[in-house]
Amino acid sequence: MASDQPGREASEVHPRVLVVGAEPFSYHTGTGITLSNLFRGWPADRLAQVHSAATPPANDVCGSFRFFPPRPAIVDRLVRRGRVPGRVAAGAGPAAPDAVRGGWRRLVHRELRAAADVRPLHVPRGLRSWAVRQQPDVIYSMLGSVRVMTLVRRLAEVTGAPVVPHFMDDWPSTLYAARDLGGLGRWRLTEAIRQVVRRAPFGLCIGDEMAREYEGRYGIRFTAFMNCVDQAAFDQYRESRPVGVDATGRQVVEFVYVGGLHLGRWESLARIGRALETAVPGSARLTVHAPERDLARYGDAFRPLSAVRLGHSVASTEVGGVLAGADVLVHVESFAPDTARYTRLSVSTKLPQYLAAGRPVLAHGPAELASMRHLQRAGAAVIVGAEESTLLAVRIAQLCADPALRQRLGDSGHAFAKLCHGQQQVAERFAAELARAARRS
């Protein structure tokens, strides 16, 4: 993405942007990866970031950072001390991973986190002065907490820059919905969002479904932007591969999952593992690649399943190779009503990568979720949108028995990704939106 387009000033193409949020630019988290992809090609002297996560930032896209702790040190110690570890045992029931553990300790921890988030915020003079020196035309933020929204508002006040919020999931509907702090948490959250939206000429969100709903909810225009994929991924991993073989030389269809196991996703994956044993015993297997902390917490639930093996935690640089080694990629969401309310408007960071890899997708989760609708629009997936093990086994058997079906779905997803998720065209549209915000200020 060129920044020196003929006849146009750099400020028109790439306004000066101050990125404010929890996660820094990085290749360790979904948020960090999405930020890096959206802003790749931005002139380094026109981009700066304030972040609160301790994750080391990557400086290949942005080179100017300021760390702002997520909460005061004494509060942070109290919150950490109140944590209650959890582990899912093999054969645990459906409610096990998300059930309340520790009783009053869990409640106290939740209340402490809420109190730390909504307490009055002091923004140091040094941080305010640094932000003013950046001379931002726009403040961009994925928000996510009262503390971050308050910081965004304070920095907008001292710099005079408009705010462009980017919602990646529907946390405004679920955060503090349990009336934390006697309802104070929810009230402070609603007020903080209102203050941010007042400073926003428009907003961004992760998908079309969210854009339509948020326009009605907040009264401003929203445009959809999600993770995008570098052209090299399309070129490198497009070639089809034969079905693999196991140690005995028997053909095995490789199902691969890459992602987290939290939010009840482990349960949907385990259901797929059991369906593989029923539908195609011995001729297909599911490899699960998840973060180490998720494998430690939920891994025991998969050990009795002969069709499932636990892979290693995949670094961002390894994802392409892992996807290329699959015959079928797997996407799952939880059917638990509370979790589905949280994920209903979200589209996973990995789905553009799945589609770009040119592999068919087996999707298992509530059919009404935005992620399932996105895969349906791409024509890339066999979607089992109900909690029905028999139907799941039938669909798995179809995928395993029909190479032409797998090829057709993979081709469709690849074409859709080139049209909608290519990094260069997405980043150019993204830059144009932020430039529009700067002009409207």
3D architecture notes:
By secondary structure, the chain is α/β, with parallel strands linked by helices. It folds into two domains: 10-68 and 123-228 and 422-440, Rossmann fold; 232-420, Rossmann fold, CATH 3.40.50.2000. Helices cover 45% and strands 14% of the residues. It has helices at residues 10-13, 30-39, 73-81, 104-118, 125-134, 146-159, 171-174, 184-198, 208-218, 231-236, 265-279, 292-298, 319-324, 337-343, 351-356, 370-378, 389-401, 403-420, 423-440; strands spanning 17-21, 47-51, 65-67, 138-141, 163-167, 203-205, 222-224, 244-245, 251-258, 284-289, 308-310, 328-332, 361-364, 381-384. The strands form two sheets. The protein has a seven-stranded parallel sheet. Strands 8, 9, 10, 11, 12, 13 and 14 form a seven-stranded mixed sheet that branches. Strand 6 (203-205), helix 9 and strand 7 (222-224) form a beta-alpha-beta unit. Helix 3 (73-81) packs antiparallel against helix 4 (104-118) and helix 4 (104-118) packs parallel to helix 8 (184-198). The protein is globular, with a radius of gyration of 22 Å. 44% of the residues are buried. It comes from Micromonospora narathiwatensis. GO terms for molecular function: transferase activity. Keywords: Transferase. This is Glycosyl transferases group 1.
- Helical stretch count? 19
- CATH overall fold name of the largest domain: Rossmann fold
Q: The biggest beta sheet, please? A: 7 strands, parallel
Report the β-strand fraction as a percent range: 5-15%
Q: Report mean pLDDT, rounded to a whole number.
A: 88
Strand elements, count = 14
Helix percent reads: 40-55%
Whole-number tally of structural domains: 2
- Text of the CATH class of the largest domain: Alpha Beta
The span between the termini is 24 Å
Radius of gyration: 22 Å
CATH homologous superfamily of the largest domain - what is it? Glycogen Phosphorylase B
The strand line-up of the biggest sheet is 3-2-1-4-5-6-7
Q: Could you say which structural class the secondary elements and strand pairing correspond to? A: alpha/beta
Shape: globular
Organism: Micromonospora narathiwatensis
Keywords: Transferase
Protein name: Glycosyl transferases group 1
GO molecular function, one term: transferase activity
